[in-house]
Amino acid sequence: MTDTRTDDETVLLVGTRKGLWIGRSDAARQDWDLTGPHHDMEEVYSCLVDTRGERPRLLVGASSSWVGPQVRRSDDLGATWAETPGGAVRFPDDVDASVERVWQLAAGSAPGVVWAGTEPGAVFRSTDGGESFALERALWEHPHRSSWGAGYGGQAFHTLLPHPDDPSSLMAAISTGGVYRTDDDGASWAPSNQGVRADFLPEGQQYPAYGQCVHKVARHPARPDRVFLQNHGGVYRSDDGGASWTSIAAGLPTDFGFPVVVHPHEPDTVFVFPLGGGEEGMGRYAPDARPLVWRSRDAGGTWEPLGQGLPERAYVGVMRDAMCTDDHDVAGLYVGTRAGSVWASVDGGGSWTTLVSDLPDVLVVRAARIPAAVSP
């Protein structure tokens, strides 16, 4: 497929432990202009390129050791930034908790709606494009909450998947707690983990209703009932919107990893980055220190490694939000590493180049096509 919109622009956000970098390129995505660090010395766990309005809006969840977390926004692709006084995402005064980090920002399926997932585990909703947020109380007050644990990186709702056709439906995932879903606009929430294994639990108790350590969940908007999940041990697919899950890990070198990404135009094409090097497969780097993106074009039935242009040897890990696609006709794929490199492919993973290296630890990457008519 040839991308005919040659005047369009590509925007790439790279969030790190010490600020945000913004890359801009044309539709060919061969030459990049990179600026940064924006929000210097702040942890950037979440980013969003919101293209729903007349002009694209960048949203960034940054956390400062001095002033705490904040959602910042830019309507000119990062030239200037605005923020909500006192912080956009805050617990109400009657809740004895404080937001440590904003782990996820996701555009809702209703105009102006933006979702935020935080540490500690909570979900917030904005109806004004990310300028202010309100706590989803039914989830915060869920009877399961007292049993949710903290993953190695902390307890957080790290995945928020609004249903593309139903604004009242949202899927959320927390480490550790599993997947939860609402179908009544947040009035109630139910666990959605049937078939997902929690291998850290005793034998005979490894398929609980909730309590799994889910790492990431993804789906394609054209086929919302098909959902893919990367677990802490296990790769799964659901064909009923998360009501039940089936393993699709056969053919992968390991079933451990963090990201899972669906191709923007092919609902059956999914990418993962398996980890498990070192003795007994416990290393948080690729098997044999050979970084490879693995692709399935049949919804997890078979897998193939993609590594042309990637380092032959690199002891690097990739975090759950550090892999993404853009939405060009010929999709680009981007991978950020904990060693500060960002690898890019403009042919769906067939070949790779190093877009940038020697950044701080990469936590999140997000990319989008910006139509020329609205690009600042």
Automatic annotation (TrEMBL):
SUPFAM superfamilies: Oligoxyloglucan reducing end-specific cellobiohydrolase. This is Xyloglucanase. It comes from the Bacteria. The keyword RNA-binding does not apply. Gene3D superfamilies: YVTN repeat-like/Quinoprotein amine dehydrogenase (2.130.10.10). The keyword NAD does not apply. Keywords: Glycosidase, Hydrolase. InterPro entries: WD40/YVTN_repeat-like_dom_sf, Xyloglucanase_GH74. Its EC number is 3.2.1.-. It is an enzyme of class 3 (hydrolase). GO terms for molecular function: hydrolase activity, acting on glycosyl bonds. It comes from Nocardioides aquaticus. Signal peptide: none annotated.
